[in-house]
Amino acid sequence: TGMVTLDPGFVNTASCSSSITYIDGDAGILRYRGYPIEQLAERSNFIEVSYLLIYGELPTQAQVEDFSQKISRHTLLHEDLKRFFDGFPRDAHPMPVLSSAVSALSTFYQDSLNPFDDHQVEMSTIRLLAKLPTIAAYAYKKSVGQPFLYPDNSLGLVENFLRMTFGFPAEPYDLDPDLVRALDLLFILHADHEQNCSTSTVRLVGSSEANLFASISAGINALFGPLHGGANSAVLEMLEKIRQEGGDVEAFVRKVKNKEDGVRLMGFGHRVYKNYDPRAAIIKKTADEILGKLGGDDQLLDIAKKLEETALADDYFVERKLYPNVDFYTGLIYRAMGFPTRMFTVLFALGRLPGWIAHWREMMKDPATKIGRPRQLYVGPASRDFVAIDER
Ligand code: CMC
Predict the structure, then answer these.
(1) Catalytic one among 184, 192, 277, 327?
(2) Domain coverage including residue 346
(3) Are residues 215 and 296 in the same domain?
(4) Domain of 243: which CATH number?
(5) How far is the CA of 207 from the centre of ligand 1 (A)?
(6) Annotation marks residue 366 as catalytic
(7) What residues sit in the active site (predicted)?
(8) How many Cα neighbours within 13 Å face the side chain of 105?
(9) Which of 194, 294, 314, 364 could anchor a disulfide with 21, C-beta 3.0 to 4.6 Å?
(10) In this structure, is residue 387 part of a structural domain?
């Protein structure tokens, strides 16, 4: 109680204390557990970063091997869960398929739902890390009408995901190490971003003591929105549209500035970064290299670069401190990897999973945690008397 302050979008309100991720939006700094994102991107890998986020320290060799092995042992989906995919329409968007299947994990693993039992939390953590790539690959296979592949536990997490996504049961799948490394890097860059919309959703749902699967499922749904995880697909659609209309970048930027039909420059701007998003800087640096190797769409990359250049030189964007965010270049890379636009946000979810888990676990251990229950400023009618239906 006390004075209620109005803060739409929680622009100035901290919902918790956290020791997972540090962002300085003015300086363009991002660190996981104190380690600069640039160093992790260059020297670490996604499994190690997942461990770091969830357990707080970089793993030793023995710890990371144990962690990877545990994950490998849980990659299979229950055959009944596999049948779940049959029920969706062929053209179902993979994001709601992903969140539904994750929500359904609560029905299959009733032995790991207690948020205060350390062993159960550990089990649900491993199950999620292991099964989300399988679920994601099946959501893709379903959408293209191809047979599902069982996971191959001799492969690492990223390798396995790529094979289950692009492989066929009838022939061996040749893993391209450049593709593996590029996807691993993108997962590292997406792994956490403190109290963003989906992570705050995971925390809010979890604050009611809902189980980890239920909380993560809610986070996936929050990520689905075009202003959040959906932005990476929206960027590519925007670039395509500009190309179709003759590649006139200046005309498009004018449209954005005039706010015609509410058009925004997708992949630009961020609630916290008022400087170049450090993740976008890393991707931009590697985009040429990765696209060169994977054979990306040079025309779209050129449009993207020109768009960035034009926007960064324009007062509208300068005054509002709008810079490219993580999503500006990722779509181009995902596409060069062979993913359809609809899978882009699923890839974001795969990358963000360890961050969501880390936040949920941190919250459950924090004695200061209370059920999330914001207040409001009521602006509706004052008290009035009921009117009978024939008198309205
Ligand atoms: N294009 C054009 N104008 C913009 C943009 C944009 N992308 N972003 C913000 N603005 C303008 C906005 O119109 C407003 O101007 P004015 O004061 O004249 O009305 C001003 O900048 C402040 O914007 P805001 O909407 O109050 O800022 P916010 O902090 O609420 O929104 C955002 C942050 C990321 C939702 C927004 O920048 C946006 O919609 N960007 C495009 C979508 C996008 O790329 N999202 C991905 C974000 S990064 C990854 C993730 O979180 O998933």
Answers:
(1) 327
(2) 54-225+342-365
(3) no
(4) 1.10.230.10
(5) 28
(6) no
(7) 270, 327
(8) 32
(9) 194
(10) no
Please indicate, yes or no, whether residues 213 and 238 belong to a single structural domain of this protein. no
Please indicate, yes or no, whether residues 127 and 162 belong to a single structural domain of this protein.
yes
Residue that has been written with the tokens 């630009």 in this structure: 268
- What's the longest Cα–Cα distance across the chain? 77
Residue partners of 15: CB distance under 8 A and separation at least 6: 195, 200, 203, 372
Nearest Cα residue to 278 out of 351, 328, 349:
328
ipTM: 0.96
Residues 207-229: tens digit of each pLDDT: 999 999 999 999 999 999 988 88
Distance, CA of 2 to CA of 149 (rounded, Å): 57
Q: Tens digits of per-residue pLDDT, 22-81?
A: 999 999 999 999 999 999 999 999 999 999 999 999 999 999 999 999 999 999 999 999
Instruction: Please say if 270 is a catalytic residue.
Output: yes
**pLDDT (tens digit per residue) in 150-161:** 999 999 999 999
Residue among 186, 227, 273, 312 to mutate when testing ligand 1 (max atoms within 8 A of CB): 227
Q: Quick one: pLDDT band at residue 191, thresholds 50, 70, 90?
A: very high
Domains identified in the chain, total number: 2
Q: Which two tokens stand for residue 100?
A: 């539904």
